[in-house]
Design goal:
The protein is of the alpha+beta class. It is built from 9 helices and 20 strands.
Length: about 350
Amino acid sequence: MAFLQVKGIFKTFGGTPVLRGVSLTMEEARILCILGPSGSGKTTLLRVIAGLERPEQGSVLFKGRDLRNIRPHLRRFGMMFQEYALFPHLDVWGNIAFGLTMLGLPRSERDKRTGEMLSLVGLQGLSGRKVSELSGGERQRVALARSLAPYPRLLLLDEPLGSLDRGLREKLLGDLREILRRIGMTTIVVTHDQAEAFAIADTIAVMDQGEIAQMDTPENLYRQPANPDVARFLGLVNLVEGRVETVSSIATPLGLLHVSSHGHEKDKEVTVLIRPDAAVIRRGDEPAPPGISAVEGIVHDCLFKGRSYHVEVRTSGSQALFFDLPQNEPAPSAGDRVRLLLSPGAITVMPG
């Protein structure tokens, strides 16, 4: 029996469809990221699971039990919003203990659990601090501790790091994943940030226009996006139209590209994704090894990004291709004429 099942959820606002038959399944002690642009329906789906929105059709099942008529507070799901919604009149301790007080737990048990949560999120020395005196990262930790304190059966996080600057967000992202994994908390995270989803999730559900376009592990999603729209949203923009020649080659405006086996019929129109890690750049007329595609172009730009160089190459047909080269590779300069040697394993063939 699945831990959580969402079956055929439809939801409209003012006659406008927001969720269009959304279904998903997740297992216990896993982290699911619902990833999508603004307006894709991801937060509405989270609110339906929490019981804060009622769908026109469909059901949410928790361990096989239909939650249709179960009020939000009786579902015992923890929820943390982007703005954290901390109580300004309470100190850190009071905010974390609030849900335990609502449960009617004895004072001794409340104190024990609150202390455990303070230790879990690394705020032991700040229990008496006013929340207005905390940094953004500290407020985020208090909100997480408050959500976890009442022993939730499922944790729902809506853009939990969205209000933080990038440097702090990257640090807390690792902390959040470590905390959730340490306690085995089943969690659904809503985010619009691809890097955030890839860093924290066991499974990612990509939403687009109220539907789940693809649901898979981060690795499979990156290597085999279901269609060009999913690829573009993931930031994979090296997309080229093509036609199937053989099980291992596609005819494209860039020339014949050697690919891994793809399962599409001969002469079928397809879209080829060349991942940003596909290329090795060579100067001069060095021939490509057997089975490796070679594409010529001129470097339009090369940006140093710390661990890698982000290179834009324009081909003779004015196709712009973008690649990430490791720092230990010699960096090309704008205007250099180069040959791109493309690994078949980093080229994906999708329906056109």
